[in-house]
Each structure stands twice: as C-alpha cells, then as structure tokens.
Specification:
With 257 residues, the protein is of the alpha/beta class. Helix content is 51%, strand content 15%. Strands 3-2-1-4-5-6-7 form a seven-stranded parallel sheet, with helices on both faces. Helix 1 links the parallel strand 1 and strand 2. Helix 1 (13-24) runs parallel beside helix 2 (36-50), helix 1 packs across helix 7 (209-222) and helix 3 packs parallel to helix 4. The longest helix is centred in the middle third of the chain and has 29 residues, at 100-128. It is globular. The termini are far apart.
C-alpha cells in the first residue's frame, strides 16, 4: 500500500513547502486550503514532477461542518502516515477592539480543526504502530503578544497539545511535533495588512519556508518534539531577562501603534 501525507493550508508558504518535501520523499498527498486555483496548480506540478497521486480538498476550517466532513474523509482512509496541521491565519489588533467573529474563527481553525484532524487519523496510526503528526505552532507560543492575543494563545495550545500527546502515543511508534517557526518569508503577514518593513532584518533573521520544513523534517528523524526555527533568542530573552524583554516589547508597541 502506498503511503499518503495530509497537508492542510497547502496553497502557499510552509504548507506548500511541506507538500513539496513529502512529495519528494514519495508520499501521495491530500492537500487542503481555500485557494482552489493555487491548489490545482500545485497538484499538477507535484504529480508531474514526482509521479505521485495528489488529492485536492477545498475546506473552510472555520466551518465546523466542513471540518467534520473532512475528518470523516480522513477517518475512512487506511493509508495516512503523515499529517501536517498547517492551516491558520493571523490578525492585527487589540482583543475586544477586533471583530469577535475573527477571534472565534481563529480558535476554530487553530484548535478545533487541528484536534479533530489528529483524532481522525490517530486510531489507524495506533493500529499500524506508525505515524507522524506535525502541528504548526509558532514562536508566538512562547511569548505573550499584546495585539495578537488569540494568535499566541491558540499557538500555545498547539505546543502543549503536541507535547502532551507525544507522551501518550510514543509507545505506539507515533511521533508528534510542534513546529514553532520564527519570522518566515510567506504571504502570512501581507494577508493581514502587516507592514513587514517595520521589522528590522538586522535583528530578526527571516527564514524561507523550505528551510523551515527542512529543519522540521530533521527534527522528525531525531525525535525532537518541539522544533523551533529562528527567533530562539526571543524565547531566551524573555525567560532569562524578562524586564529587558518587556522594555523592548513596550518600546516596539509605542512606535507602531
């Protein structure tokens, strides 16, 4: 039986890079997203280049009905060996001042959809005693972020969820990873209207999505549960020098409010 990998949010950025990586390793793919044209183009390119089967699913992960339908599809499959939960989005603005529906949507996409997707594939992985689950979190999982309250909170959930789940399922030969990228060159920031020129390239080293995925897959081979790509110094700064970290954060917020 051929092995299949599922990548959500595969139309661009880290999701697209992960689809390419897994295709190069010989996996058939199930790729999801909302941008149908981009997904169809990716399907044609990967199928032709790597001679694999690619199934496109258009899913709105903020819709619980669509998530349940997608998870029933996953649950019926016997060939899913890799799940990459990458679907997600960000907003910019203070909690309470933003549209409440966007905050609930983020909770649904980052938490509800990810948890149900894992649940949908976990039983078969346990029976097989083999499987890889990658939940794309963020360095924001380690850092309280005023102006991005729900984003950092939901990403922190994915971090804790992944670490705890790994402890439960490692006896079944299943590997779980929380991928925590720092600043990555994708359309994530531009889609929420965030001006990336505000962020100094001298202070923050931006990673290409392909580099993030390469490090993530190396972490898979090493059994490393929390995989941080870039901006690790921010985490160390917060933990070792909290007053300095808060001063830098407050200064940044004053300049860019």
């Amino acid at each position: 039986m051929r092995k299949t990998a599922v990548v959500t949010g595969a139309s661009s950025g880290i999701g697209k890079a992960y689809a390419e990586k897994l295709a190069s390793l010989g996996y058939d793919l199930v790729i999801t997203g909302r941008r149908k044209d981009l997904l169809k183009e990716l399907k044609l390119n990967l199928a032709e280049k790597y001679k694999i089967n690619v199934d496109v699913k258009i899913v709105e992960f903020s819709s619980k009905d669509e998530v349940i339908k997608f998870c029933l599809f996953l649950n019926r499959r016997d060939d899913i060996y890799v799940l990459v939960n990458n679907a997600g989005f960000g907003t910019e603005g203070y909690f309470g001042a933003e549209n409440t529906s966007d905050q609930i949507k983020m909770l649904d996409v980052h938490v509800y959809a990810s948890v149900l997707s894992v649940q949908a594939v976990l039983t078969k992985m346990k029976e097989r005693k083999s499987g890889v689950i990658i939940n794309v979190a963020s360095v924001a999982a380690f850092l309280p972020l005023p102006g991005n309250v729900m984003y950092s909170a939901t990403k922190n959930f994915l971090l804790m969820f992944s670490e705890s789940l790994q402890m439960e399922v490692q006896k079944y030969g299943i590997y779980v990873q929380a991928l925590c990228p720092g600043f990555t060159r994708t359309d994530f920031h531009s889609r929420i209207g965030f001006d990336t020129s505000k962020i100094s390239s001298r202070l923050f080293k931006w990673k290409a999505p392909e580099d993030v995925v390469e490090k993530s897959w190396k972490c898979v081979s090493r059994g490393k549960v929390v995989c941080v790509t870039g901006s690790m110094y921010l985490i160390l700064l917060r933990r070792c020098f909290p007053n300095l970290y808060n001063a830098i954060l407050n200064n940044y917020l004053k300049k860019h409010q």
